[in-house]
Structures are given as structure tokens and as C-alpha cells.
Amino acid sequence: MNKLHSSIFAIFSLMLFSLNLHAEKADKDKPIEIEADTVTVNDAKKISTYTGNVILTQGTLLIKGDKMIVREDKDGFQHGTSLGNPASFKQKREGKNEYIEGNGQRIEYDGHMDKVQLYTKAWVKRGDDIVHGDYIMYDANSEYSEVIGGGEATPNTAKGRVKAVIQPKKKPLDQPADTTPAAQ
Hints:
Radius of gyration: 20 Å
CATH topology: lipopolysaccharide transport protein A fold
CATH architecture: Sandwich
Number of domains: 1
Number of helices: 1
């Protein structure tokens, strides 16, 4: 039983490490640009509602949806909720030529905390690794991810379950053996 427990722990640890998502740090210092068919603005409450083919960009971050509600907090940071069937996001990883992307029926983005949350029929993909669940959160600042099952079964998950597909890590090409004599 100890061997089985160790194997399960190793697989779970690998999943957590492979889901550590490091977003491009410079993104939060870039301006937010939003395109939509219509917008309503409530300056008193610092809330804007965009509808119709909404596209938000901030540096390498891209969020798309049918409707987006953006509010500004007292410190001037932007927070957005994107709704769609599905809503989607994509963002470059820090220091890598690789993107993180995902879908959900609702995506919440916190510009201050650099956190993205996806709800309902959600999935997040990094390279060839992908995770499906009813709720997915990743926090780029703390390098923390969380995935929760629940909801109805989808083609990718059984009812109430999380599904992750993690590809084996590529090993460097075999190096020729060192033929120099060992030091005495």
C-alpha cells in the first residue's frame, strides 16, 4: 500500500508543478484595451459593461467573450468578468515562448492580483498539458493553481470530476559518454 500511496502522491505533485502558471509579469503594467459592439459606462460606480464580441487585451493577455463587466477599484486596478459560450483567455508565460489558454462560461480577471478564475465547463491548457474542471483558478503571483470538479459530465470529464492530461517531460538528447579517465 505504501508504494501505491507514493505513486499517487508523485502523480499529484507532478500535476501541481506542471500547472504552475507564470504569466508575463510586464502585462499588469500595460494599458488595457477593450473592443465591443456597445458599451455603457457608469462613472459614479466606476463600472463599464461591454457587449457583443468583446475583446480585452493587456500586453500578452487576451480575453474574449459575449459580455464583459469591468470595474475599477479604489487603487485604480481593473477587474473584469467575461461571460460567453464560452469566454476564453490566452496569455504568454514569463520568460518562455509558450502560452497558457483556457475557456469557461465565465472568466474573472483580477488585474491587481494577476489572478484568473474560470467557471463552468472550464479548461486550461499549457503546451500539451490540459486540465478540465468546473472551476479553475490560477494566481501568477503566488504560482498557485486550483481545479475543482463538479457540475455535469462533459465529453472531457465524468460528472463531478477533474481531468488532467500531463505529457511526459522531454529528456535532453543522449550525451556521448565521457571517456576521460576519472580523477584519482
